[in-house]
Write a structure and sequence with these properties.
This protein is α+β, with helices and mostly antiparallel strands. It contains eight helices and four strands. Strands 2-3-1-4 form a four-stranded antiparallel sheet. A hairpin with a 2-residue loop joins strand 2 and strand 3. Helix 5 runs antiparallel to helix 6. The protein starts with a helix and ends with a helix.
Length: about 230
């Protein structure tokens, strides 16, 4: 009985707390942007005093790690996103565009907000900022399928990887008719989105494809301005 008591005592005060700590640590995935330490947070202080101290120190250490990771992630988010629209910016693009070239296929949709400059000139930069935000909301459709960038000024870009040209066309056909005019009827001019598309297989140069999509966007922009008599 005394041997069994010793075994149970050691199990309760040493082995079980160590097993719980090991389990809590083993499920942490440090590859994720948001790291879940909740299993460690819920550990009870049980076992020998030394075990309780170890658990306390692990919780303290992970608290410091969490704070620093959050600080780094926040700084990285701000450095790679456009503050006004919430979209990715050029810095993020420079970091990942070579990865796009290694995908089986990548498509670029280059987008222009027609008459943004006119909106700024006539109604002020607050109205222009509101127009950019309105355009960004219309582009949220693409967050499900790819990455959305604000390239600066009135230009946006979407990158979609590993879809067929037919599927991409279906996405565009479902999206573009819902965009409409982004500004007020009484402004005296229409702010709409022009776009151009390029589609490439693995290994193609990203910058070349971006230029092609930009050129095609410009053709649509000119056609829309002619349509509205501008």
């Amino acid at each position: 009985e005394s041997v069994m008591f010793i075994i149970m005592y050691c199990y309760k005060n040493l082995i079980r707390p160590l097993t719980s700590l090991h389990t809590a640590l083993s499920v942490i995935d440090f590859s994720k942007d948001v790291i879940d330490f909740s299993k460690v947070d819920t550990l009870e202080k049980t076992g020998f005093p030394e075990m309780q101290e170890i658990i306390d120190k692990f919780k303290y250490l992970l608290g410091i790690i969490t704070e620093r990771i959050n600080r780094v992630n926040d700084a990285r988010y701000q450095s790679e996103h456009d503050e006004l629209s919430g979209c990715y910016n050029r810095m993020h693009l420079e970091r990942v565009k070579t990865q796009y070239e290694t995908e089986e296929s990548f498509a670029i949709i280059f987008i222009d907000v027609n008459n943004l400059k006119r909106m700024n000139d006539v109604f002020g930069h607050d109205a222009g900022d509101a127009l950019i935000k309105a355009a960004a909301r219309k582009l949220q459709f693409w967050n499900t399928y790819g990455d959305v960038y604000r390239m600066g000024g009135d230009e946006f870009m979407i990158v979609v990887c590993n879809v067929s040209q037919q599927t991409l066309k279906e996405y565009i056909d479902n999206w573009y008719p819902t965009v409409g005019v982004l500004n007020r009827d009484g402004d005296g001019f229409k702010c709409v989105l022009s776009y151009g598309v390029s589609y490439a297989k693995k290994g193609k140069d990203f910058d070349t494809q971006q230029k092609l999509a930009d050129d095609r966007m410009y053709d649509m922009k000119v056609a829309i301005k002619k349509k509205f008599g501008e």
